Amino acid sequence: MDEQKYNLDQSLAELDKLFDLSAKETDKTACEALAEKARIIYEQYPESEDIALRYARILFNLSIQQTELKELEATVEKLEKLQQQFQDSPDIALPYAMILVNLSTEQTELKEWKATAEKLEKLQQQFQDSPDIALPYARILFDLSTEQTELKELETTAEKLEKLQQQFQDSPDIALPYARILFDLSTEQTELKELETTAEKLEKLQQQFQDSPDIALPYAMILVNLSTEQTELKELETTAEKLEKLQQQFQDSPDIALRYARILFNLSTKQTELKELETTAEKLEKLQQQFQDSPDIALRYARILFNLSTKQTELKELEATVEKLEKLQQQFQDSHDIALPYARILFNLSNVQTELKEQKATVKRLEKLQQQFQDSHDIAEAFARILFNLSNVQTELKERKATAEKLEKLQQQFQDSPDIALPYARILFNLSNVQTELKELEATVKKLEKLQQQFQDSHDIAEAFARILVNLSTKQTELKERKTTVKRLEKLQQQFQDSHDIALRYARILFDLSTKQTELKEIEATVEKLEKLQQQFQDSPDIALPYAMILVNLSTEQTELKERKATVEKLEKLQQQFQDSPDIALRYARILFNLSTKQTELKELETTAEKLEKLQQQFQDSPDIALQYAMILVNLSTKQTELKERKATVEKLEKLQQQFQDSHDIALPYAMILVNLSNVQTELKELEATVKKLEKLQQQFQDSPDIALPYAMILFNLSNKQTELNKLETTAKKLQELHEHEPFRESEEIAFIYGVFLTSLFNHQTDSDERLQTTETIKNLYEQFSKFMLQNFDDLFFSNDNVCDSDEYKLFNFILREGLLNNTKYAILQTWAKRYKEDSNELKNLLSIYQYVQKIKYQLGLKNEDKNKNLKFGHYTKGSVLQSLLDQKEESSFSIVGKTRLNNANYMNDPEEGIIIEKILGLDRRDALEPSSWFLMSFTIKTDDLAMWSQYGDDAKGVCLVLREDDFSRFSSFNDVSWRREKISLEFSDKMYLMKSELNSSFEKSAFRSESENSINTVNDEGTEPNSEEKGNVSKGNVDYLYRIAYVNDSGGKFSIEKTELFNDYEIKNLETLLKALKGKIDKDLDKGDDFYQKAISDCIEEIRYLFKSVDYKYEDELRILRYANLDPSNDKIKIDKESGIGKLYVERENPIQIDEVIFGPKFPNPEYVTPLLKLLDKEINYKKSTIKFR
């Protein structure tokens, strides 16, 4: 027994040595050898608890070195058997518990982990009072929790650990895994209440172990988790305060400091007040200064600085914040995460910077950052956005191009990024805003189109494409081009049918299209499309506006009252829907005014005026709506014949003008309506009172030619009622002062009125000196304004059937008798005036014949509506003539300076030229030797025609010069042959009408014409969509009018006008009617015995003599321009060409020739010698050689 005891003691000592060795050994093989020796000893004494305990401890040590799961499991099994043998031994249970923990760390399957935890759970239940066994149980529960993904499982595990911690409340070691498992649990909880409950448990634990940094850390972490779920700022602030106290307790802990940094950042995301955000940023700034080397804390500080920047509106504040983040980025230069908020804050800075230089500097900083992190999509996105911002402040095309190119390269690097593609799309739109050349704009549009095709599902990129298409349409002058652009936007809108923004651009481009459409049917089709769009987006005032505007445009093209009424009703409904919209109300006001211009019945006009009155009362402060109301009141006054009615209307407009006293636009119709009132006032006192009102208005707007004109007119109306010479002289002084006022010295209309008035004054004057002075003044007026006066005289002889009774005729007759019209076509009337008395039948008859001639001449004029025929005007001539036109003066720059000639009518190659009209009218044949004072130049629409080459093209060796459209003027109405070319009209006495400003037709018809919408101005965060263009064009070349040659068939004793491409049926009928009426007038009054009278008729016909030819020349489709030049030695307009050996008379056109195309004849020698010169002088000239075969 003693020997056995000795052997046992030796074995225990040996096992103690083996245990000590295993505790120090790091080699697994060596540990396995030690465990094997321990096993042998244990098997010698299987009943010895002491031996078993030492063997168990050695097995645990072995498990520490084992990394293979199977090996570890085998070791655990051995220790498990050992524990089962000595079930009541807490000492053996402890290494078993510890080895189970080790086993769990190597297990990857949740099931295995659960099984191991269950074994340890049973062990702990057996030894419930053992804190040593409770600790590994706590640890294995924590390890288990890290693998559990189901909230319920995690909650169960946490509950077990909670019970354990409650049993061993004073154990910091058990409290720590409990704290950690509570944090793990919080990561899976999504309900705020659950999270708050878990945080409270951990808070109590931390309060129990206040000095434990290990427990403080998960508490800090769970507070961060809690903050991420809190939506109320107060709750978040409370949570942050708790973590702040914790950080103050453990000031040197970088881990807790990091969590405090995180919660401060979370807090900043909820703060909306700048001061609060600044306080939070200051706290994080101090924290970062304490842990300067921590990139994680620096990152949160960087992010909170970015958040702060989003609330800062003052540039200085924002710059200070940017500097802080810049320093941080310089400290952590290689950190992409810190570089990102720095990139974003630079973008924010650019949003506030207004100076181009500042913004450029900011862009450079971000550009360097992007170059450092070239592969970073997020930094590239910030760079893309700041480039777009830069483009917003760049006004120069070159700068904006360069910025767009940088963004283009960036987009090519990140081709699949919709985030970078979007600012690229927007910068292309911005670029389009400053591009004036159509080709450049088209290239930009193509780039954005490709981008949109790549990102077809991107609404934002599609919107940018829609916007640039609108810009493109405003630059397109050709209707076809604009139609194509509209179709592209139409497809886009169909793809994004629910997009209000794209629909808005489609609405605007449809409106822009309407400004180019001249055909009513086309405009109606466009209106229908916009109407459907508006019905789809019924609640959108933005889309309703272009619909309202296009309805205004439609109304201007509608000639039928019913059509215009229907259009007005649509806009009326729209206005009722958007009653508070001043923009839509304005368009409704405009269309009501347009409607008024077509209404001839007083009651209808009154109803329309009442509607506009109500609208004006609703928008009392709108000068634009007030203007429409003012204009419609003027129109209404023209239909009122009763003085009381007209007075009442004037009073309304007077109140309006008093409300908008500084508005020149409203003052103008008030001035006009005062003139209208004066026209029906018969009492001198009333008229004088009206004149005083207009006089005050003119004094307020002293330099306004628009208001000066009606003032001049009302003074003239006043003079018609004045019979006393002294009063007339007072009125004359006022008119003289008006005429001599600096801004009006060049006013043709005021000068004309003044001239008419002076002729009336002359008749009242008896003093010869006064008469002489008046005569001299009239002469001076004519000398300065002769062209304008002659245009008015043209109008007079066309429009007034009682010429001699008009006020204008008095001026005309005065100037005529003074011999001032010798070098005009009216020279023939001078001899009439000398021969016949002013009130004689002969003179009246001749003037009547002259009037018919003017009407026929106008009928032959080429009209504006003929533009739709796309006519070309060719002039066949010799090649030498072309060379002469292209000849350069030494001192001039390279350009075409040659002017075309109008040759005297006596040189016509047709022997019957000028005779056909005599046959029609039954006049004696004109003496062929009689010289003509008319000069002309011929054109044809038959360009490149065999017969024309043969007859006029130098036997096909010459050229056909096709002149540009703007080298001629066209008639839109007879007003174009007179001074009525201006746009406003005022009633002047009974028969005189003066034109000015932007309104149309006489007061007795309508004082103002229909208005059309010309543009939509829109400003947005990406730039500005430019105004669309107005309809119409201004002639840049010569002002000569083209007259069509009428081809006459006079066979069988009857005449008829042949229909050609240049005349429609209505024009031919009208022309034939006028000719028959003229013939009837001549036949009735022609006195065969009076040679002078017959000669006067012949001279009268001279003006249209060369506009009629025999039907034999119908193939020529000829047009001519005419010019009168009196054959007088003093006429410096006439020149002599002596090249042919005979001095031939000609006059030159006023401006150099405007060549559109040169067609070289089939036999023209070496046209390639001429084309370089053409290209040098005018790159826009087209040229080709005739393809006609010519022998």
Care to describe what's here?
The protein has 1191 residues and is mainly α. Among the domains are: 1-102 and 112-126; 684-784, Serine Threonine Protein Phosphatase 5, Tetratricopeptide repeat (Alpha Horseshoe), CATH 1.25.40; 867-981 and 1038-1185, no CATH class. The chain is 64% helix and 6% strand. The strands form 5 sheets. It has a 6-stranded antiparallel β-sheet, covered by helices on one side. The chain has a 4-stranded mixed β-sheet with strand order 1-4-16-17. Strand 5 (985-988) and strand 6 (992-995) form a beta hairpin. Mean pLDDT is 89; it is low at 975-1007 and 1015-1037. Keywords: Coiled coil. Residues 62-738 form a coiled coil.
Report the principal-axis shape.
elongated
Low-confidence stretches: 975-1007, 1015-1037
Instruction: Record the strand order, biggest sheet.
Output: 9-13-3-2-15-14
Give the rounded overall mean pLDDT. Answer: 89
The oligomerization state is single chain
Class by alpha and beta content:
mainly alpha
The value of Rg in angstroms is 50 Å
- In helices, the fraction of residues equals 55-70%
- CA(first)-CA(last) distance: 152 Å
Largest sheet: 6 strands, antiparallel
Strand content: 5-15%
Coiled coil: 62-738
InterPro entries: ARM-type_fold, DUF2971, TPR-like_helical_dom_sf
Region (Disordered): 1014-1033
Organism: Streptococcus mitis
